[in-house]
Amino acid sequence: MALFGFQLVTTFIAVTALQKLNAYFSFAQWLIARGNLTWFKLPNEQEVRSQIKPENGKNYRRGRRGESIKDDSFIVPRSLDVQLIPRPVLEVHVIPLRYYSELQWLIDFTVVAVVVYITTACFYLYNYPLKEFNLSMVWVLVVLVFASKYLFSVLKMYFDTEEKGELWMCLASGLCFLLVAMGIMLIGDDILDFRLDEALHKASEEAELLLEQQLSVNRGPISKGLIKLSLAFTCGILGAVLTFPGLRIGKTHLDSLRYSSDRTFVQMLLHCNFILPVFLLLLWIKPLGRDYILSNDVGHLLTGEDKPIMSEAAFERGRLGLVWCFCLIRLFFLPTHLQSYLNMAQERLDQLRKEAGKLTYHQLLLLVMSVFRYLCVVAIQYIAPVIVIFSLSLLLNTSYGALQLQDLSDSNVASSSAVGGHSLPLLSYALISFMLWWACLAWLATSLLGVAYHSVL
């Protein structure tokens, strides 16, 4: 078979489709700008001016030294009852918004990467070349890099403000997640189903043997403590990055429940969308997940036979399938959460009416339009963590397949050499599995914090 063969042809087709079809159809535009969302616009100056009772027939404001300063922006009482004008969100409205091009590229590239991954997986079902590199993994890794990059970019936007409260909050959150991750590293494989200690032990043995055979030196095994410490720092950084997306989804979740108070079924789905990560986390706790579900007692209870209800491979695939269902449910409720965010414009005006004093029309316009202006930022905060979790699940699926092939080859062929990189599939499986579990944990923890914070306020 030629170099990459089928995969290279699939990649060329995917790149061409991404380049050519993007000018005619965009999945990002279909998600948020097909008219399914409603944004709110402030009436023009004449309409607002007509509702204000003139004061001595003058339209000017006083400067700091008492001089008259003429300005196109007139004074508006805070208690003025201004009715916002609803408008459907169309592509012409979102194109000028900040981060729209990044959001469009992220979603469209993710869709194409998923198509490439599924096509390659279907091809491997019938013809699995052991010596051929899985090129779809490159697509998934690029998606993961882009999603992480845009999350860091949005986080940097908070740091550019004059007030540094967001910076200190992010640093405090990252420190807390670092401490939690270091505590989790102390838990062994008998509790958490990552096989991390087993993978690090095998990698350490292989590295030690490699040094002895190739370099004739014995420097000891790889420091597992240093690897775990580096992994804990990575977890702290990921937790800090997911802080504001979690706070945002906590706020929009509460608003979505409030706006759907008369629809019980929708509220049930919203609750399932929010608490589903809890069940994902429990599946990686060995006594509650693998040991319990694959026990003979559960098999006897459900089937009447003293044997597990599924195999180890079926449990792994089912656990990943639940992760994919979670990502699809989050994607399904994206318009609902974005609409809850857009409704903040009316909420700000309602809160403004309770306050005394005045402000200029320009200030009122910024108060209302700033909500719609950051629509794409909120969309990235919602969709990028979903894409990160989904990408990690695809990597884990492929890593588990490689681990199965490695176990099968080891059982069929007795190999005396331990320097062939036999620990690499297990090590990649353990690291990706842990990062997937940690991403779900960090996002759930920050979302719960957001719900608690906005419930008190």
Describe what this molecule looks like in 3D:
With 457 residues, the protein is mainly alpha-helical. The chain has one domain. The protein contains 19 helices and six strands. The chain has a two-stranded antiparallel ribbon with strand order 1-5. It has a two-stranded antiparallel sheet with strand order 2-3. Strands 4-6 form a two-stranded antiparallel ribbon. About 5% of the residues have low confidence.
Strand elements, count: 6
Largest sheet: 2 strands, antiparallel
Structural class: mainly alpha
Instruction: Quickly count the domains.
Output: 1
Main β-sheet, spatial strand arrangement: 1-5
Low-confidence regions: 56-71, 414-420
In whole angstroms, the N-to-C terminal distance is 63 Å
Beta-strand content bin: 5-15%
Rounded mean pLDDT is 83
Globular, elongated, flat, extended or rod-shaped: what is the shape? elongated
Q: Assign a percent range to the helix content.
A: 55-70%
Oligomer kind: single chain
The DSSP helix count reads: 19
Q: List SSEs in N-to-C order.
A: HHEHEEEEHHHHHHHHHHHHHEHHH
Radius of gyration from the CA trace? 27 Å
